[in-house]
Amino acid sequence: MTRTSKILWVALLSISGLIGTTLPVRADEGHHANCERRVRTAEVKLQNAIQRYGDDSRQARRRREQLEHERRNCPEYRGERHDGMEHHDHDQH
Question: How many angstroms separate the CA atoms of 22 and 28, rounded?
């Protein structure tokens, strides 16, 4: 193998390594953004149900369940909790 071939081979491996390490991060960022969007949407739907039907209505209870479902499915979500519950161990439910 010539010196030029070795340099090109090392450069190719280095570039491949850099690209390979950045792709999963971008995928995780997309997953996190989708996750956060679903939680925020569920929060808005809960607030709408509370305003329309009341805090203790069947619709509000259903929206609370949906919100908790989204939060459990988004372990990296660190949004503000309004119900006083901590979101550390999602295996309790």
Answer: 10
> 3-class DSSP state for residue 1?
coil
Dihedral sign (CA 7, 8, 13, 19): positive
The DSSP call for residue 81 is P
* Residue 38 to residue 28: CA distance in whole angstroms: 15
Pairwise CA distance, residues 33 & 40, whole Å: 10
- Over its C-alpha atoms, the chain yields an Rg (Å, rounded) of 23
pTM assigned to the model? 0.54
Burial class (CB within 10 angstroms; exposed 0-12, middle 13-18, buried 19+) of 47: middle
Instruction: Identify the CA nearest to 35 among candidates 71, 86, 65, 88.
Output: 71
Cα separation, 73 vs 70, whole angstroms? 5
Domain spans of the chain, in order of start: 3-72
Give 75 or 70, the one with higher predicted confidence.
70
